[in-house]
Fold:
Amino acid sequence: MATRRHPTARQMRLGAELRKLRDAAGLKATEAATLLGANSAQMSQIEAGVAGVSEERVRRLASHYSCADDELIDGLVAWATDRTRGWWEEYRGLLPTPFLDLSELEHHATFRWDVDFLHIPGLFQTEEYALGVFSHRVPELPRSELALRIEHRMKRRTIIDGAQPIPYKAVVHEAALRIRVGDRAASRAQLDRVLELSEADHVTVRVIPFDLDRFIDAGSAMVYAGGAVPKLDTVVRDAPHGSAFVDSEAQLSSFRTLFRRVEGVSLEPARSRDFIHRLTKEL
Structure:
């Protein structure tokens, strides 16, 4: 059984989900290993995402764990058997691993929700806006990596403006729309880009205005990526030293509630487009 030196977040998540099923069944790793004709070290490698696992083994484990959720099992099998070498792989070793993990997550997502308060969501960003965001990093990025980060961000947009886009909802605070990451012309171009994408049938943009009373959810910024089933959803949040991937059922449930709450107090899509259009005319 070959092992991986650097498993992706998706591979580690598969192992973690198999461990959750084992824990729910009340079995020890040694007992699960016996079911596969393996040893405890090999089982640990599978559950850490360091070693791959076949469809037959996923289904055998699920059966012994008494898991009757066929959709969940099929989702795990899809992860186990996926051999996609996506466009993001060309950046491996050139950009931080979380950038690639996010691209892989987005590529396989069934839908995407974003909530942003200080920046235009990454999938909406123009090259000039992204340049402004990455240029103000401390310490400064080498020019070569700066160019790679912008290029990578532009390629990520394919999930909403490519040939097979996924449903996308973005809730954006007025602060993010007004903050000028670049100059006046760049800000106008960025708002025009948001308006252009908001016209697509699969894209919904909603705005939270400054004058909203009793708004207390400013800490709920998130990227929410849908999986094959809700249990396989993932939330990505910015952390001081990179992105944090959240996937526990309790946390996912909380973030779904937070999104619905923020969505519920925001302006309707048509009013949001009018709002952004007025901001554009002010520039």
Summary: The first helix runs from residue 9 to 25.
